[in-house]
Write a structure and sequence with these properties.
The chain has about 300 residues and is α+β, with helices and mostly antiparallel strands. Helix content is about 45%, strand content about 20%. It is built from eleven helices and ten strands. The protein has helices spanning about 20-25, 120-125, 135-150, 160-180, 190-200, 210-220, 220-235, 235-255, 260-265, 270-285, 285-295, and strands spanning about 15, 35-45, 50-55, 60-65, 70-75, 80, 85-90, 95-100, 105-115, 130. A hairpin with a 5-residue loop joins strand 5 and strand 6. Helix 5 packs across helix 6 (about 210-220). The protein is globular and about 60 Å long.
């Protein structure tokens, strides 16, 4: 990992550091004892983003890579890559370093947390490092982060801060849910086949794929692959692929002003009306509404 440090901010970033006066005020409050947010943010395309803490941090740190790549190393462990859809929770007082890839810098959501609730989540999440976030949970996770950002744009008030802490608790719960889903056991061959198909999908976002094509890649029959995929992801292979496309398309809508019809073509859907129907089915709103609302 390159040890260059970013001196200033990142374009379109969110960054909130809660004032110490507020944190001191809630320290012994029953409502806040379970979980407190001390810092929270989002760094898009964060080239040169790097942090190294030899003594660790007093708070736990949750990282969620949504785009690009980064790496994370905890004391006593080998360095691991964080790819899109992967999250990690760094325990308090644990020496660590993390940062963006120079070739494909990550877009990363992060939050610093402290409180009694962490003791329940740390063993579960630490044992599933990194945590794979399924596509259905991704939207919920990102929505909660942005809910926190919107609340924190207003003057700091105790009742608003309580809502932020509750959203952070939901973020932890979503990660725990993802970790639980990851425990669904497949045979080594089955897991390898599904992962192989997912890698193939990631490299094929610009074209359509059929179940038969994916079955050929996996080495299993279409019906067997369909069953494995549903067990592993909760979705049939083609539906999972569509969701992967729409998630990738949402980033284009968020980061660019390109016409929707151009983005649709890039993702192998030449009919913009059909693309809009697919996008709304997966993301809950139309591409235009998604862009206008700044969701993402």
């Amino acid at each position: 990992m390159d040890k260059i440090r970013k001196a200033d901010g990142f374009l379109n970033e969110y960054l909130f550091v809660l004032p110490e006066e507020l944190l001191t005020q809630v320290e012994d409050d029953e409502l806040f004892r379970s979980l407190q947010v001390t810092d929270i943010g989002y760094f898009p395309k964060a080239r040169y983003h790097y942090r190294e803490r030899e003594e660790g941090c007093a708070a736990a740190i949750l990282l969620y890579c949504r785009d690009g790549r980064g790496s994370l190393c905890l004391q006593g462990r080998e360095e691991r890559t964080l790819e899109p859809g992967q999250a990690a929770l760094i325990p308090p007082h644990t020496p660590h370093r993390y940062g963006a890839s120079q070739e494909e810098p990550w877009s990363v959501y992060w939050v610093h947390l402290r409180g009694a609730l962490l003791s329940a989540y740390l063993p579960l999440l630490d044992g599933n490092f990194p945590v794979e976030i399924p596509l259905p949970l991704d939207r919920e996770l990102v929505r909660e982060f942005h809910r926190c950002f919107e609340i924190l744009k207003t003057p700091y008030r105790l009742e608003n801060y309580f809502l932020v802490c509750q959203s952070a608790a939901l973020i932890l719960a979503l990660l725990a849910s993802a970790a639980g889903q990851a425990k669904k056991q497949l045979s080594p061959k089955g897991g390898e086949a599904v992962e192989k198909c997912i890698r193939f999908m990631k490299n094929s976002l610009s074209r359509p794929l059929t179940l038969e094509q994916l079955a050929e890649v996996s080495g299993f029959s279409a019906s067997h692959l369909n069953a494995l995929f549903k067990q592993y992801t909760g979705h049939a292979p083609v539906e999972y692929f569509i969701r992967m496309k729409m998630q990738a398309a949402s980033k284009e809508l968020f980061f660019t002003r390109r016409p929707v019809k151009e983005i649709a073509v890039d993702f192998g859907v030449p009919d913009p009306f059909y693309f809009s129907r697919l996008f709304k089915r997966v993301m809950g709103v139309s591409p235009t509404a998604y862009r206008e609302q700044g969701i993402g």
